[in-house]
Design goal:
It is built from nine helices and no strands. The longest helix has 28 residues. Helix 2 packs antiparallel against helix 3, helix 2 crosses helix 4 and helix 7 packs antiparallel against helix 8. It folds into two domains: 117 residues, RNA polymerase sigma factor, region 2, helix turn helix motif (Rna Polymerase Sigma Factor, Chain: A, Orthogonal Bundle); 67 residues, Winged helix-like DNA-binding domain superfamily/Winged helix DNA-binding domain (Arc Repressor Mutant, subunit A). By secondary structure, it is mainly α.
Length: 184
Amino acid sequence: MTDSDLDLIKAVQAESFLSPRGQQAFEELVKRYQQPLFNFVCRYVGERSVAEDLTQEVFLRVWQAAPRFEARGKVSTWIFKIAYNLSMNEIKRRRRYQNFYKGFWDDARAESLFSKQRDSRELEEDIMRALAQIPENQRAALLLRVNDGFSYKEISEILNVSPAAVESLIFRARTKLRELRSEK
């Protein structure tokens, strides 16, 4: 078996999950993408336990959708698009619940119910705090570029925007982060 992502997806498509070849191909995809996906989702949603669950959900969706995958783009772009969409849904779900609970308690009580878990390291806290203050689409574009090394074209496919829009999103995200840093 070759080690390209496309070959792995083709093996998953052609084989049953019960076959050793199908399992091996899927396990290789998981090995390749588990940590980068987790890092992206964790920084995007800001909570480790949620990121762990969402990362597992991404792989479940990859397995389910593999038979329908068409090689129009890179496998990595397809996988990260699934992760991005699931992360966006999680953020929307949180907002709905937050608004629901705000009707029962004062704002401080509602906010405390949804406070984000943070790593103990001070630098990580500062980065997460700053990332949380920039718009979601800017944050996603910046994380996909900086952390995961995607090209503007690949990011445009994941976020469903033009490459020029990606360039603008990343520029505005970096500008906002610089502003936040200078306010400290």
